[in-house]
Amino acid sequence: MNQCRLRNTMLFRIPFRALVALKWMRHNKSWLQSRQLRTDSSCKAPKAPAKSKDADSLLNGSNANYIDGLYSRWKANPKSVDPSWDAYFSGNPRGASTKSSDKRKYRRPPMAPSPAITTRTELPSRNISTTNPVSTTAAAPPPAMDWNYIDDHLTVQAIIRAYQTRGHLAADLDPLGIVQALGTTSVDGARRNATESVLRQHYTYVFNNLNATFKLPSSTMIGGSEQFLPLKQILDRLERIYCGHIGVEYMQITSLNKTNWIRERFEKPDAIQFSPDEKKLILERLTRSTGFENFLAKKFSSEKRFGLEGCDIMIPILKEIIDRSTSLGVESVMIGMAHRGRLNVLANICRKPIADILGQFHGLKATDSGSGDVKYHLGMYMERLNRLTNRNVRITVVANPSHLEHVNPVVLGKARAEMYQRGDTTGSKVLPIIIHGDASFCGQGVVYESLHLSDLPNYTTHGTIHVVSNNQVGFTTDPRFSRSSRYCTDVARVVNAPIFHVNSDDPEACIHCARVSTDYRATFHKDVVIDIVGYRRNGHNEADEPMFTQPLMYQRISKLKTCMVLYSEKLIKEGVITAADYKAMIAKYDKICEDAWEESKKMSTIKYSSWIDSPWSAFFQGRDRLKMCPTGVSLETLKKIGEIYSSPPPKEHKFKVHKGILRILALRRKLVESKLADWSLGEAFAFGSLVKDGIHVRLSGQDVERGTFSHRHHVLHHQSRDKVHYNSIEHLYPDQADYKVSNSSLSECAVLGFEHGYSMANPHSVVIWEGQFGDFCNTAQCIIDTFIASGETKWVRQSGMVMLLPHSLEGMGPEHSSGRIERFLQMSDDDPDVFPDTCDCDFVARQLMEINWIVTNLSTPANLFHALRRQVAMAFRKPLINFSPKSLLRHPLARSPFRDFNECSEFKRLIPDSKTANKPDCVNKLIFCSGKVYYDLFKEREDHEQDETVAIVRIEQLCPFPYDLVMKELELYQSAELLWVQEEHKNQGAWSYVQPRFDTALIKKENETRCISYVGRLPNSAPATGNKVQFMTEYKAFMTDVYGEMTEGNKQRLERIVKEQQAKAKAATKAGKEALDAAKKRAEHSIKESKAAKASEAADKNAPAAGTPAKGAPPKGTDGKPKEPKKNNVKITERTEPTRSSLSQLTLLR
Ligand SMILES: Cc1ncc(C[n+]2csc(CCOP(=O)(O)OP(=O)(O)O)c2C)c(N)n1
Fold first, then answer.
1. C-alpha–C-alpha distance, residues 1025 and 1018, integer Å
2. What CA–CA distance (Å, rounded) separates 498 from 250?
């Protein structure tokens, strides 16, 4: 018997073979007699023994071969084996003799020695099909066939699958050899890495003949054009493909098309091929990568540079991706990365002049304004010719903060916006590449959030190539303590991305992975990951001592040759280059660096703006930065937008709209007819007029399509057809710009980052992120702090991003009340102690230009409209953070007349009190406030009958502070007491921001002795109480602080008003009831009519009577004329200021 055991590497055993034989033998004696146990014809099947308990146990897997041998001997000479075996093989297991006189007891045949691996699991299919052939389902006995042969084939198939699925677990990925494959050498002398963890139950399978040929299943391409391969070759090929220097992790992908595509790229013989020229190019690029770090180390030995040493192959990998992508049509590559290897990427990928990079080391003064950033965070862009493909390509490295991975969504958003600009709907022109560290890739939640954007229709970049520079350590922490997953890349499995783990010391394997990744992304437009498993030659930075924390690892590292040296030795050995060629290569790059060094010495200053990643050169060119365009629009525009926005989809769409929506639309229409706008109309006017002007508007966030508080309803849903939507703002003008409103994933950090990135791409767009509740923006704090608040200062990069944050205390508890105005104001960079030059005719624009962002707390729809339009009316871009109270979305008083939107109108930074302005001398209290509290103060003033003595002024734009307008108010009400009233707790809201600025203004004012006092809630750690009673107690307390206790007269008056209102309401209810009854009657009548019509229609089916109303025609009255549609019974009057009656309404509401 030609039997091979591969114990330790692959001990393939068929435990069920004997078992199958036995069981079947018991039932199919005649068939068994002709059956061969093995393909080896010398081995005949034994006769079926009688059933015995021992029979099954003795025929366990480890004994079958032994038994086979005994059987052969017994066949030749029954006496040559133990009598018990003789009895067994002759079919008499209870004893060799059947004679009753023979008292010899059955004894268990001697067993083969125990194998090293004794536990084994049988394939379920074997058990199912063979354990009980006379089953209750009365399955027919299987046809005569060679079951062993079939089993061998099935096992080969399972082994192929095992390699494909888990081969990467035993791949030789670690150049340090710490995480080593546990493979051993098998009997055929081949070293095989696939261990039990890869092969599972098949690890102990015994094949008789490694040279036996097997048919390859269609699920593998290891054979190339061959359909059959000897087992040994199958195993060798699988080993080489799956357990070599590449760990291909792809079987999590559910698409067969994709898995087959990947197999083709790795399994096909000669899949990994490099011509001598290609090999030389890889070495040349490695020389640059390693040479650059060596050069910096030589010149600045103690400077932090976060070198790439140990993962030097990353540069050739990126080069390959870019070369290949440009040849496939990519015009713009957007790179996001952290510190590690960044300078190398700038020098060798973007070709930033090395002298400029060296200039950053010289500690030179900047000639432009801003705070700048450390050299390994700076961004840049470069438009250059790719010499290999002879195509132009723009390469951008997005500036990033120290917060690892948070640049990811920004890169994605920027890439998406660029795709939009280039009309690239498939991602074939713009390619995002994100480079990760191993510890941060698995550690930072934003990675997961960003990956989840990858396939969302309005966020996808049609695939991102992720490259992990996996140096197997994060600062000082090794992976055993930094992650629970096996790989640092496991997070990418959630989006079904293929992951190619590759040993960084095998450049050809690395470049092959780069090629496959590029092609995968180009073919399937999906994310893909390359995990470069390398090491970090130095400490976390060059000044760090790694031996403190990783002594053993660094002992090994110190003995390692660089990848460049190893590869050069390989190529010299192969005869691809000579030692002299290699030397010349090194010298050539060294000279480039030395020349740049000399050049850099001539530099005396640097410019932050030469590190910009989003140049808007055309936008800024020839512009007067202080010139602002008007924001008002014509009445005609308002009417047109209003009409379309308040109408259901046109009839031809046959769009079934929800009844509730129809009611909302009717209300909108009434408003438009009355030339009044509520919050949603104000917003729609802004968006509609912007797209009319060719400005692309994008609104994104959780549930923004409807609006969290159901005020917006931009996307209408067909009530009986799935995925049929209608957005009227997309259909305003034939040549309008694109309006995109999109519900996002439930993420703040990644989505806000994405929108910020989007806003960086094109100044002619308004990009808005709306928080579900303002509070939730704190999960995106990192994006707010490091990008939105400080991006321009650090990186000279502007953004007109808008954040809409629902804010105001409305008794909704601690987490649904505050957008944390105080935090945004605290990050504003205007000096509270400096009174600006308000006489400057460009004061308003200058103030905006110099601030880091604009913070508003608006109280009218018109101001929202102007604020949004001002975002592109400015000749520069600033982020706008707007707080919008939830209750104002529907507040009957928070409405603006159309004239507040017209060409003569503009954004109001401060809204004076029009009631008291005529008689300022009567005013003894001047209240400054911001946001929704204005309406509370206004109502309470009326209730307290202090309309003439108290002035209420709204500061709509908190930052930059409207000093000029505040001064006017201070001057107007010379003798009034000054109060700042806010509903937020004292340590929150705008108080801490406005107080020093009021002081500065008051100091500036001549002969001023007043100071401003705070009225509002006491300090608190929570933004609001969750207890309604406490909420109202607090409210009353601070209103009493403002207006004092109510007088008896006040109370009586209020009671009177309440009674009047109640009577009115009652009357209205009665009228409503009557109207309802009438409507019901009408409905019943029309049902009757329609039933009658149907009946007569049925009767006259073949001969419809003339004059039958067409389907959808309006019902006719008794006179035969079409009935007038019922007018909606809503009365709306134009109002600019709240009136007494409207306030009484509010009293009732309260
Ligand atoms: C969000 C965040 N947390 C902590 C740090 C501090 N830090 C800087 S680099 C680093 C290690 C990162 O390890 P890894 O991602 O593996 O990248 P490597 O530096 O090894 O290339 C840490 C913890 C940071 N920059 N950002």
1. 12
2. 5
Q: Give the gyration radius of the chain's Cα atoms.
A: 40
Q: What is the pLDDT of residue 82?
A: 64
Same fold, 276-611 and 910-1047: yes
Torsional class of 713: left (φ above 0), alpha (ψ -120 to 50), beta (otherwise): left
* DSSP secondary structure of 70-90: HHHHHHH-GGGS-HHHHHHHT
Mean pLDDT value across the chain:
85
* Beta carbons of 166 and 198 less than 8 angstroms apart: yes
Is 867 within 8 Å of 880 (Cβ atoms)? Answer: yes
Cα of 337 vs centre of ligand 1, distance in Å, is 12
Q: How confident is the model at residue 210 (pLDDT cuts 50, 70, 90)?
A: confident
d(CA 464, ligand 1 centre) in Å: 22
Architecture of the domain made up of 910-1047: 3-Layer(aba) Sandwich (3.40)
At a CB cut-off of 8 Å and minimum separation 6, what does 503 contact?
171, 172, 173, 174, 175, 245, 246, 509, 510, 533
Confidence of residue 375 (pLDDT cuts 50, 70, 90): confident
CATH topology assigned to domain 276-611: Rossmann fold (3.40.50)
Q: Which residue's C-alpha comes closest to atom 1 of ligand 1?
A: 403
CB 718 within 8 Å of CB 655: yes
List pLDDT tens digits, range 835-851.
999 999 999 999 999 99
Going from the Cα of 475 to the center of ligand 1, the distance in angstroms, rounded, reads: 6
Looking at the DSSP assignment, which residues form a beta bridge with residue 698?
740, 767
Q: Give the pLDDT of residue 120.
A: 28
pTM, entire model: 0.83
- Tell me which DSSP letter residue 483 carries: -
- What is the torsion angle, in degrees rounded to the nearest 10, for the CA atoms of residue 569, residue 570, residue 576 and residue 582? -20
606 closest CA partner among 792, 397, 336, 374: 374
- Å from CA of 293 to ligand 1 middle: 20
Residue ranges of domains in the chain: 147-244, 276-611, 635-901, 910-1047, 1048-1075
Q: Which residues line ligand 1 (CB under 6 A)?
A: 340, 402-404, 437-440, 444, 469, 471, 473-475, 536, 540
Cβ contact 121:171 at 8 Å: no
Q: Which CATH class is domain 635-901?
A: alpha beta
Distance (angstroms) between ligand 1 centre and the Cα of 318 equals 21
Which atom of ligand 1 is the closest one to the Cα of 311? Answer: 21
321: closest CA among 258, 407, 261, 389? 389
Cα 379 to middle of ligand 1, angstroms? 18
Q: Are 122 and 15 in contact (CB under 8 A)?
A: yes
Contact between 38 and 208 under an 8 Å Cβ cutoff? The reply is yes
- Using DSSP bridges, classify how beta strands 925-929 and 910-911 pair: parallel, antiparallel or unpaired: unpaired
Among 305, 408, 440, say which to mutate for ligand 1: greatest number of ligand atoms within 8 Å of CB.
440
Residue 972: C-alpha distances to residues 256, 794, 966, 967 (Å): 76, 41, 10, 9
Q: Which residue has the higher pLDDT, 760 or 111?
A: 760
CA–CA dist 856, 867 (Å, integer)? 9
